[in-house]
Structures are given as C-alpha cells and as structure tokens.
Amino acid sequence: MLQAPPAEPGMREDEIDTPALVIDLDAFEHNLDTMAALLAPTEAKLRAHAKTHKSPVVAKLQMARGAVGQCVQKVAEAEALAWGGVPDVLVTNQVVGPRKLARLAALSRICEVGLCADDEAQVVLAEQAAEAAGIRLKMLVEIDVGMARGGIEAGPPAVALAERIAASKHLIFGGLQAYHGSAQHIREPEKRAGAIAEAVARTRRTMEQLAQRGLSCAIVGGAGTGTFRHEAASGVYTEIQAGSYAFMDVDYAKNDDAPPFRHALFVATTVMSRAAPGIVVVDCGHKGVAVDSGMPGVWERPGLRFAGASDEHGKIMVEDAAAPALGERLRLVPGHCDPTVDRYDWYVGVRKGRVECLWPIAARGGMA
Amino acid sequence: MLQAPPAEPGMREDEIDTPALVIDLDAFEHNLDTMAALLAPTEAKLRAHAKTHKSPVVAKLQMARGAVGQCVQKVAEAEALAWGGVPDVLVTNQVVGPRKLARLAALSRICEVGLCADDEAQVVLAEQAAEAAGIRLKMLVEIDVGMARGGIEAGPPAVALAERIAASKHLIFGGLQAYHGSAQHIREPEKRAGAIAEAVARTRRTMEQLAQRGLSCAIVGGAGTGTFRHEAASGVYTEIQAGSYAFMDVDYAKNDDAPPFRHALFVATTVMSRAAPGIVVVDCGHKGVAVDSGMPGVWERPGLRFAGASDEHGKIMVEDAAAPALGERLRLVPGHCDPTVDRYDWYVGVRKGRVECLWPIAARGGMA
Prior knowledge:
Two copies of one chain form a homodimer.
Chain A: E1 20-24, H1 25-39, E2 45-49, H2 50-53, H3 56-64, E3 69-72, H4 75-83, E4 88-94, H5 98-107, E5 112-117, H6 120-133, E6 137-144, E7 152-153, H7 156-166, E8 171-177, H8 189-212, E9 219-222, H9 228-233, E10 239-240, H10 250-253, E11 265-273, E12 279-282, E13 297-298, E14 304-309, E15 314-318, E16 329-333, H11 337-341, E17 346-351, E18 354-360
Parallel strand pairs in A: 1-17, 2-3, 2-10, 3-4, 4-5, 5-6, 6-7, 6-8, 8-9, 9-10
Antiparallel strand pairs in A: 1-11, 11-12, 11-16, 12-15, 13-16, 14-15, 17-18
C-alpha cells in the first residue's frame, strides 16, 4: 500500500508528520547547478544515477541541466523512470532472469534502454529476450576496474565479450561500464586519485584493444560523487554516473576534499520521549534512516549526538546542550542517502520553512 | 508506487522474480501453532507484534490461534490493520503530534485502540485529540524495566501518571507497558532470565502501588521472542508482544536456548555475476535484506557465506563448496526480519516448491 503523504503544500515544516523525508530545495537546486557547472568544461556528460533518488521528477530536473539520461540498478527502477517520461535509461548492472529481461525489452518500445554484461551467459539470455520482443537491446561490457564485485577482467576477456555482443543481430554493443564504487570511500585524496588512475588505465587499455578489433564505445560510463572529478578529467569516461551529489550524505562529506555540494536531504523527526536521563528518543529508528554507513547526523544542533537506532526509535545523547522538548522537531542528515530514500513513498520539498511540493518516490522498493 | 508482485500463484519457486520475500508456509504455520501451544498453559495471552509482519492477513492467522489482538509501533501500522479488519490494536509506543493523534482517534470508531505514555505532556495531547474526536482513548503507562529507552520510572512516578490518565474524562487507563527489548539479545540464558526477573519485579511493584490507589491494569504487556517464556510464566504479564517468532531471524536463533521456532522467512535471490574469483554476486544487497543485526545466512548451502552487502549487490564467498551457477537461486535468512519485511510490498507464500499465495505487506513503509 502506498502511504499517504506526510504533508501538504503550504504547511509549515514543523507541521509535517514525522518521520518524513525532506528535501531542502535551495540546497538541492544548488547541487544540481553545481554539478552541471563542474562538468561543463569537461568532455564528460552526466548520466545521473537514479538508484539514489528513484524519482522521474528529480531525473527531469537533472536532464534540464544537461544530463543525457539516467542510470538505474534494477529493471523496476527503469520502469518507474520510463513510465514517468524519462527518455534514456541505462541499467548499470547485470540482469539475470527471463521475466526481468522481458520487462526490460518491453520498455525499449518507449525509452532508450541498455544493460550490462560480465559473462557470456548473460548475453545469451538478453539475446533471447530481445529476439522474443522483436527489438535490439543495447549491452555494455562491465569491466572490473578495482572493486572486485562484478565486472569481467579488463583487456582481452572484455574484448571477447564485446565481440560476442557485437556479433549478435539482437544486441547492440554499447560500450564499457567501468565503475569503481569502493574508491569513493578512501579517505586520503592521493590514494583515492590513485585508485581512479588505475581504473582509467584499465579502461583505456580495453578501449584501445576494442578499437583494434573495430569496436568503438558510444558510452564509457562510471564514477560516483566521491571521485567523479577524476573520471571527468580523464578524457576516457564519456558519462559520469554520480547520484548522491544531489542530496549528499554524511559519508561523502567526511572526505577532506569533499566536492562542493550541500546537505539537501533530511529526515524530519520528532522528540517522542525524554523519560530516560541524558537522552531524548525520537520517532525515527533504522526503519526510517539507513545506518549501514553509520549513524545520521543531527543538523545544526551541536551537543546532540544520534547514538543508536532500534527499529522505530532513535536515541539522541544530550552531551553539551539543553535537551530538546517533547514534540520538538529535529532534522537528521542520513549517513547514506540511497537506502534511506528507498524506505519512503514521498519527498517533501521545503523552502524557507514551508512545504512547497510533494514528489512520489516512484521506484521506491523497486527490487527486481 | 506499489511494486508489482514478483510471482503468481502456481509458479515454481525458482520462477519468482528476485529479490523477493518468501514465506515457507509449513514453517510459518508451525511457528504460529507452537506459540499458541507454549502460551496455552500460562495466564498470558498473545498480542502479537505487527511491527514484524505489517500484514492484516498474518494478524488474522495469529488471532485465529488465540491472539487477543495486535501491537504496532506507529499509527500508520494501526491504520493498515484496522482497515484490514483487525479488531483490537495497541500502539506500544508514545504518539506525539496532533495529526497522528487525530488519525488514531478517528480509528477508534472501527477498532479497539490504545497507546502509551511516559510523560504528562503526551497525556495532554491525547486528551485533546480524544475530546476533539468525541471518543475516549485507552492509554497505558510505559515503564522503564531496564532498557533505558522510553518508559517512565517504575513505582511512584508511573502511578502518578496513571492517576492523571484515569482522572481524564477523555481517556481510559489501560494498564502497563513493560517491554525489555534489549534483554532478548543477551546470549547467556541466566543473565537474560535475570534481566526479565528484574523487569517483572519493577512491574509487580508498580501494580501493587496502583492497586493501593484503586487502579487495576486490564493489560500488562511486554516481552518478545527472545524472552517471552519468562514473562508468560511470571504471573504478572497478561499479554505477550512477541512478533519475530512467526518468522525467526538469525539473531534470535543464536541464543543457545532459542525457542523452538523455525526459519520461515527468506529472501530469494539470484546469482547475477561470478566474474570475480572466489565470490559470486547475488541481486540482493542491503536495500533487499536488513544488515543492522549482521549479514544474512545462506540457507542450506554449507560453504557459502554472505560476506558483504552494498546497495543492490550481495557478495557471497565461496569457501568450501562448488560455486553456484549464474542464474542459480539461493535463499537468504535475514539477520533481522522486521526491517527486511518493511522493504517489500509482497509476501510470496511457498509450499513444496510452489507459490501458494501472495499477501500484500499493507503497512510497509508506515512510518508516521
């Protein structure tokens, strides 16, 4: 069941039912504009990752500022975007399973779609789905550029897979997917730059070998909020797949050289108990804010520390501040935006203390 | 947007689109029957906690076996249950906020409802909502029995709050909420029993002091899957609020004296990449299975270990087994059922390898 929206346009921020996912619209628009400005002098375009925002509304605001399309991780996310009018969606992931592939192939009638492979078995499955649907599917080869999660070995194994795709009359070879997600969380700037330099080297070498076989890459995609300035400057990557930049989370902001994005996403929460000494309990636990990358911050309330989350309760230690009152509102800064967004049905857009808009998180829960 | 169901009745289990939330119906029914049998010789009744299952369908199956009603943590959960025909719902939590209280008061026209307080300010808010709605709200006093999260101090402070509730013409004093959640995760059986003995002592003392003031407790509620046999045997608790017993998760099963429930809830997942040596990657990360209590288990596949979850990918180490094939299905046992359920729109009920039913998770995402 879709949950009812927690607010109405025109309300004051402190009237929103909590916990609720709040976008600070001024900060959010600053982030979209900043990314567009940072990429403008480079050869790379933005293909923003919708795994973060899961919303055709946000996608269109990004595309209005120059993004060439959207990335997703799941077919269900591709559906939500295409049904919401987004014209170009790349699944930056393998898709394994005949029902999923049939859904993706069906989508290609209303939207430019693509997907990735790191194994010939995936190519065979995609080929069957495309043939059955009477369309051609665009398929990129995902190479491992240092994360050791998915991705075929760069160089000859990747080239062989690309040739297999290019030889299929039901598929189109779309280029390389070369994402180094874990590099984004390396705190030392030099080590992080070194990891991306290695990713660029593996990607360039593979492109050169592909060219020797007569194959060019329409897309060379990768990068995230923690590293995209390196990939964008590489001359190799054509598409930047950052997502979190739109909202920012605590983890990316920890890097010393964090990019100039503002915190734009918050979970609004209410103090519901102050019975226990030294703590206040808020109505948001880990069902309401993801804690896989650490606890959320408490926004602009020095002396308050979010110390622990159970399912529906958050414990805030009152360390060097007056305890907030029962019923008082706090803003939490998610430790990790993407899974936090995925728990909610609605964004509540706020500007100058008033609710300005409600946007459905259309791909929320899009697992398959 | 509600996500489409990942399966249809009659399908084979290996045709379900993954990741998907699967109930093993034989194990699930065993668990419901077992709990009914364990409580039958005691004076305590089950008021199962719907924060785990979030489904009126599951609630009714529990009530058909003797449960007197359901617990919830949020007003949105109470709504989903009441709208689904559950006749008696207790919010085992404080409710702070005029919109939430108005919704709960409205619900009392179709369902027996109650809520908890640990502060007089909550009593005042509930009183106002009840008066505005022209109904009486049942309110329990939550006492701290050792968890130091919510709950007023047992004894005289709790008695004073109960008297305040009982004196209101818009409220009904409903009894005591005395939940010791953290005791459930104490591994040593004696220490766990000791924690509950202390909870029982604080509760009994408060009841005696209430009786001296002429107040009796229609409900004395608490207990969870990890401790309920102690509370049920105490002679003090009238209602047991266990929820996880229906499904069981990895964490509760770690206790040496784990109660005789079976793993009944799984996340079905598919191997989507085996490009990296020594691991296979499945299509379920922490968006699909909660990791706040640790990684999921891999069901009946010795030698495979779920070692890490990113947003949409799970890394399974192949330690002492043949690597599963691309496309092969695995069942994951959630480390923590409650937040895992809250990520999905549908239960897929499976028996003997076939999909038997689909049940909507009606209160999924019910935050406020």
